[in-house]
Amino acid sequence: MQSGYFVHFTNIYRTSWIWLVIILAFQQILVLESGQKNNLFLNLLFWIFIAFLFYLIWPRRFMFIENSFYFTKLFSAKLVEVDLRYVSGVHTGKYTFQFNYAGKYYRFLSVGNGLNLLKDRFQKADLLESVVASESE
Q1: How does DSSP assign 37-72, residue by residue?
Q2: How far is CA 65 from CA 2, 68, 136, in A?
Q3: What's the CA gap between 137 and 93, in Å, rounded?
Q4: pLDDT at 133 over 60
Q5: Where do the domains of the chain lie?
Q6: How far apart are CA 6 and CA 33, in angstroms?
Q7: What integer best gives the mean pLDDT of the chain?
Q8: What is the structure's pLDDT at 104?
Q9: Which residues pair with 97 in a beta bridge?
Q10: Measured in Å, how far apart are the chain's first and last C-alpha atoms?
Q11: Of 75, 66, 69, 114, whose CA–CA distance to 92 is shortest?
Q12: C-alpha closest to that of 74 among 92, 59, 93
């Protein structure tokens, strides 16, 4: 079993970042308007912001076991199994890796050994043409 770390980079992930900014802005506006530094509601909003921030930036783990690729979704602890035979549209960037599987679009941010492992395993699964074409652009 080979594994690495990644961060989701899909539309849901981007929308979550927007909501994070909205929560922080709302909390800061209430702090400035009320003039109270030790308000329980404002402190609760701030700690919700901190928890949400850690949840979004915490890296998730992916694994390769034989011809399958496993990873967790953004708001689920359940593993998603991807059979490499049915993957299409593989593209890589400097820090991103994206592919289509069963009609769904997946995009990951990964660096270092994790990104190299993703590239190597998908190349071994005869998806080399789309990976090489993407890197030459």
Answers
A1: SS-HHHHHHHHHHHHHHHHHHSPEEEEEETTEEEEE
A2: 7, 5, 29
A3: 9
A4: no
A5: 2-6+60-136, 11-56
A6: 39
A7: 82
A8: 87
A9: 92, 108
A10: 32
A11: 114
A12: 59
Distance CA 32, CA 16 (A): 24
3.40.50, 2.30.29, 3.30.310, 1.10.3470: which CATH number matches 2-6+60-136? 2.30.29
Query: Distance (Å, rounded) from C-alpha 52 to C-alpha 50?
Result: 5
In terms of residues, how long is the chain? 137
pTM for this entry: 0.68
Q: What is the pLDDT of residues 82-99, one digit of tens each?
A: 888 888 888 888 888 888
Structure tokens at 122: 């998908």
Question: Angle between the 11-34 and 40-57 helix axes, to the nearest 10 degrees?
Answer: 160
Identify the band that residue 22 occupies on the pLDDT scale cut at 50, 70 and 90.
very high
Lookup: tokens for 133: 């074409």
- Distance in angstroms (rounded) separating the CA atoms of residues 56 and 8: 9
Two tokens at 108? 């990951």
